[in-house]
Amino acid sequence: MRKKAANFTKPVFEALCVHGIMNIADIESYFEQAIPSSYKEFLSGHTKEMEGDVYLYLLQDLIERNDCYETKTYANGYINIGDNGGGEAFIIALGSDDPEVSIVGHGSMDPTLKEFVCSSFSRWVASGFEYDNE
Predict the structure, then answer these.
(1) pTM
(2) Helix, strand or coil for residue 60?
(3) What's the gap between Cα 79 and its chain centre?
(4) Facing residues of 80 across strands?
(5) pLDDT tens series, the chain, 134 aa
């Protein structure tokens, strides 16, 4: 079931991003789709910035990062959940409970160019976010 998109005006959107007043319902409203349940579960406990080759965005940064990289335009049906610090985005498909994790260049954000990272988000979390970054 599609949710009605939030009608954030630019000042309201900027205030939400700057002040970190975001919740999962805001993210789902922005994408007009439910966030995968495995990713929702992860977000509920993900409160500290990550270090290393895998940087997963905090809840309050998701809309701003996806807006910046125009995920809805170039990777419609996906959410950009983080990056590797080397110009590539980790993406997962919306509309699945435990989607595959892929990586794609920030310059294209084209899912047809994505590369496989892990068969499911929950398995990726359990692996300690391992991926072949070569």
Answers:
(1) 0.84
(2) helix
(3) 4
(4) 91
(5) 333 344 454 555 555 555 455 799 999 999 999 999 999 999 999 989 888 899 999 999 999 999 999 999 999 999 999 999 999 999 999 999 999 999 999 999 999 999 999 999 999 999 999 988 76
